[in-house]
Amino acid sequence: MINIALPKGRLGNKVYNLFEQIGYESSEMKEDNRKLIFENKEKNIRFLLVKPSDVGVYVEKGSADIGVVGRDILLEENPDVYELMDLGFGKCRFSIAGPMDFKENFDRPLVVATKYLNVAKKYFDSINRDVELIKLNGSIEIAPILGLSDVIMDIVETGTTLKENNLKILTNIEDISARFVANKSSYRFKNKKIKEIVNKIKEIL
Ligand code: PRP
């Protein structure tokens, strides 16, 4: 049995479609239900629907043999997994954004709201900028509007959320896309099956 961790939401749906195209479908998946585990007994696979930020944990610990996760999560959580393939979709970028009239005050730490504390710390350390990091779990764009932070560090895909909240990109930090990852011991012991899946996906990408 191969356990596959899929991120719930937009990215997960795209990834599931890929698996369907290579013949690893699960009819239950199409039903309107709240199930989180879907099997295809014939093909000996099981899909696990998890929060995007948890995919790395499931794969590192071996609850899932393989999974798909955004590079943003890999950079933030740094799970001990093999990164086997860049799927080339789920493209976005890490950016610093702030109000249209933002002017940086270098006499004090910059207050940054973000979901990505580790990535933010690493980036601001690399440019020797003192910061106060505020951890939020979503709707980050609200923080500078309310004066909770000076700027945000977040992922930007289309830029619509920034635009509709009167924010602009100040600095682009890094490009991001979806990555196919594998548990290290599964990659050894279920190598044939995992490679077969990777190769089939490569063929249709
Ligand atoms: C993400 C991200 C931005 C938005 C960017 O949020 O945190 O808010 O998408 O996308 P855009 O550039 O296409 O507008 P998500 O939708 O995951 O919701 P969240 O606020 O709960 O994190």
UniProtKB/TrEMBL annotation:
A cellular component term, taken from the record's GO annotations: cytoplasm
Domain annotation ATP phosphoribosyltransferase catalytic: ranges: 51-202
Compartments in which it is found: Cytoplasm
Catalysed reactions listed for this entry: 1-(5-phospho-beta-D-ribosyl)-ATP + diphosphate = 5-phospho-alpha-D-ribose 1-diphosphate + ATP
Keyword ATP-binding: yes
Membrane-spanning intervals of the chain: none
Family: Belongs to the ATP phosphoribosyltransferase family. Short subfamily.
Domain notes from UniProt: Lacks the C-terminal regulatory region which is replaced by HisZ.
Assembly and binders: Heteromultimer composed of HisG and HisZ subunits.
Name assigned to this protein: ATP phosphoribosyltransferase
Organism annotation: Leptotrichia hofstadii
